[in-house]
Specification:
50% of the residues lie in helices and 10% in strands. Helix 10 crosses helix 16. The strands form 2 sheets. An 8-stranded mixed sheet has the order 3-2-1-4-5-8-9-10, with helices on both faces. A two-stranded antiparallel sheet has the order 6-7. The protein has 429 residues and is of the alpha/beta class. Helix 9 links the parallel strand 9 and strand 10. The longest helix has 35 residues. The chain contains 18 helices and 10 strands. The chain starts with 14 loop residues before the first helix and ends in a 21-residue tail after the last helix.
C-alpha cells in the first residue's frame, strides 16, 4: 500500500503584522510631509523677516536663517564679446560681468577704449558709473582693433552680444562675417527692423552672414540702460528657436539680485514686440505733445497693444508673447517714460521740429520702423489705425487734429470678441 501523500496548506497571512506595517508606513509618510511643510514655512519666514537684515544682525539673532533659502546660481563662466560700447552695450557688458563672466567690449574709438581699460568707466556713455565689479571677481576689458576682436572670437563657446544700431547691423556683419565663428551664439539686443530689406533683425543678420544655421537669441524687455547700471530690479526675456541657447543667455545674464531673465521659444513674437513698440512710443510722445493727458495716453497704449498682438499673430508669432515683457512690458516703459528717445521724438515732432533735425542728435528706431510696420500691415491685410496715424504724422501727411478725428470717428464696435460657447446666455422669458 502506498503511504498517505502529505499536502501542506498555504500559510495564512499574519493580519496583525500587515496592519502594523501599514500603520508604520503611514506614520513615516505623514512625518515626512510635516517636515516638508515646516521647511517651507521656515523658508517663507526667512524671506519675510530676515531679508532686510545685514549679515551681522542675523548673526546676533543666533542663527542666519537666510542660509536655508535655496538660491540657484549659474556656475559656468562664459566668454562674452559685446559689439558696441554705447549706453545699452555698456549696460549689457556690466550685467554679464556681474555673473562672473569674462567680458570684452569692442569699439572703434581708441580713446574710449583706453579710458575703459585704465579708469574702468565709459567716458562717452553712462560715465558716472564704475565698470569694476564688487570684490574684483571680474572686470570688463575694452578692445578697439579687428585683430583683437578676431582673437577674442576664437574662444570656444564664445557668446556675441550685439548692441549696434539696427540699420548698421547687417552691413557690419556682412563686412566682418569671416571672423564670426559659425558656432558662436549671437545674442541680439537691438529692437528694430531692417529698413532696406524690410526684414526682422534675425533674418537680416542671417542673410548678411550668408548662413542659415548661425545660433541666434533675442534679448528684449523693459530695460533702460541707466536703470540697469543703478541696480534697479529688471526683468527681461530671451527667445530662440533652440531653447537651450536661450537658457545659455538666461544663465549668463541673470544675477538673481538685480536682473532676472525669462526664456521663450517665440523669437518672432519677441522681435516684433521689441521693434514695433518703437513707433507706438513715438505716438505716445505725440499724445503728450498735443497736450492730452493720462486718459488719452492710456487709451492709445491699450489699443496699440491690441494692434501689436494682431500683427504678431499674422506674422507667425504667438500673440501671448505680446502680453509679456517683450510686448506690453516694453511698450509701457517707452510710452510712459521721458527717458525714451522715441517718446521724446514724438513730443518734439508735435512742437514743429523735423525728423531730420531730431535724428542728427540721436538714433530714433521708431522712425524707420514705422515705415516697415505699415508694409507688414498691408501684407497681412490689417487696418492698424494707430500705426497708420503715427506713420502719417511722422511724414506730415495729416495734421494732429485730423489724426484725432480719424481715430475717434471710427465706427463703434466691440472691444473684444468672444466665441459663442463662452458667451453668457441671457433669457428674457
Amino acid at each position: 500500500m502506498f503511504g498517505k501523500i502529505m499536502t501542506s496548506r498555504p500559510a495564512m497571512p499574519n493580519i496583525p503584522t500587515i496592519i502594523a506595517l501599514s500603520f508604520g508606513a503611514g506614520i513615516f509618510a505623514a512625518t515626512h510631509l510635516l517636515r516638508l511643510r515646516d521647511r517651507e514655512r521656515l523658508r517663507k519666514a526667512c524671506s519675510r523677516t530676515q531679508k532686510h537684515l545685514r549679515k551681522g544682525q542675523r548673526a546676533a539673532l543666533g542663527v542666519d536663517l537666510t542660509s536655508y533659502i535655496p538660491i540657484w546660481k549659474g556656475t559656468s563662466r562664459q566668454k562674452v564679446v559685446v559689439l558696441g560700447a554705447g549706453a545699452f552695450g555698456t549696460a549689457m557688458a556690466y550685467a554679464a560681468a556681474q555673473g562672473g563672466n569674462d567680458v570684452v567690449i569692442y569699439m572703434r574709438d581708441k580713446n574710449q577704449c583706453h579710458t575703459i581699460n585704465t579708469e574702468h568707466r565709459n567716458p562717452r556713455y553712462l560715465s558716472e558709473f564704475s565698470l569694476l565689479m564688487e570684490g574684483g571677481s571680474s572686470e570688463i576689458r575694452g578692445i578697439c582693433t579687428l585683430e583683437d576682436l578676431k582673437v577674442e572670437l576664437e574662444t570656444p563657446g564664445v557668446v556675441i552680444v550685439h548692441a549696434l544700431p539696427c540699420q548698421l547691423t547687417p552691413p557690419w556683419f556682412r563686412e566682418h562675417k569671416d571672423i564670426i565663428p559659425h558656432d558662436a551664439l549671437i545674442c541680439v539686443t537691438a529692437k528694430g527692423l531692417y529698413l532696406p530689406t524690410q526684414q526682422l533683425m534675425g533674418h537680416a543678420i542671417l542673410d548678411a552672414l550668408d548662413r542659415a544655421e548661425q545660433p541666434l537669441a533675442f534679448l528684449s524687455g523693459p530695460s533702460f540702460a541707466e536703470e540697469i547700471m543703478k541696480g534697479n530690479p529688471t526683468t527681461l526675456v530671451v527667445a530662440s528657436d533652440d531653447l537651450f541657447q536661450a537658457v545659455r543667455i538666461q544663465r549668463m545674464m541673470s544675477n538673481f539680485k538685480t536682473i532676472r531673465v525669462f526664456t521663450s521659444d517665440d523669437p518672432v513674437g519677441v522681435q516684433l514686440g521689441g521693434a514695433l513698440k518703437n513707433p507706438l512710443a513715438v505716438g505716445a510722445g505725440m499724445v503728450a505733445g498735443m497736450g492730452f493727458g493720462t486718459n488719452t495716453l492710456s487709451a492709445v497704449v491699450v489699443r496699440a497693444s491690441h494692434e501689436l498682438r494682431q500683427l504678431a499673430a499674422a506674422m507667425g508669432g504667438n500673440p501671448r508673447t505680446i502680453d509679456g515683457l517683450a510686448g506690453i512690458g516694453d511698450l509701457m516703459l517707452t510710452c510712459f517714460s521721458s527717458q525714451s528717445r522715441n517718446q521724446r521724438c514724438g513730443q518734439r515732432l508735435m512742437k514743429g521740429e523735423t525728423v531730420e533735425d531730431i535724428q542728427k542728435e540721436y538714433t530714433v528706431e521708431g522712425i524707420p520702423t514705422a515705415d516697415v510696420a505699415i508694409i507688414y500691415g498691408d501684407m497681412c491685410g490689417l487696418e492698424l489705425p494707430i500705426f497708420r496715424c503715427v506713420h502719417a504724422l511722422i511724414h506730415k501727411k495729416i495734421t494732429p487734429d485730423e489724426a484725432v478725428m480719424s481715430l475717434m470717428g471710427r465706427r463703434s464696435q466691440y472691444e473684444t470678441k468672444h466665441s459663442p460657447k463662452n458667451s453668457r446666455k441671457i433669457s428674457f422669458s
